[in-house]
What does this fold into?
Amino acid sequence: MQHRLYVEELFKSGIGAAQAPGAAKPGAARKFAALTAAQWDGLREIGTLKVRPITFQSGSSELNVDGRAEVDAAAQNLRHYPNFRVVVRGHTGARGDPESNRELSQERADTIKRHLLVTHGIDEARVRAVGYGGERPLARLDSEPDRAYEYRLPRVELQMVAESY
It folds into this structure.
């Protein structure tokens, strides 16, 4: 996970643990208050949960077996950070109709959110799904072939965020 040491330090120091306002005591689930879109936008990014690519049926928002397994693994990792909220960010490639890409990425992010809520019982107020389409492409790696780059573009990220204290 990006910024892993920073997140671990926050957890140990109390921001990620029981000292934060409304935080869960060790072993207990935190109750999250619902937020408006503006409040979600004002949250501080903590880090991106490192997950293997979450795969879907081509051109659809339906998770395949491997994709479900990756979301299940991510849900297990989220249990280590019970006091952080999660933004599910959906992305697509840059080719094609921008509006269709944005809609597909939103549907994919919604699918991940729904899976986390229904299958893993994660608090709905803890998770937000956002689709960006091709608006926020990944940086291309040095000497990366076109095919490899295009393969990396359609993805879903799980970003951990927190209130500022």
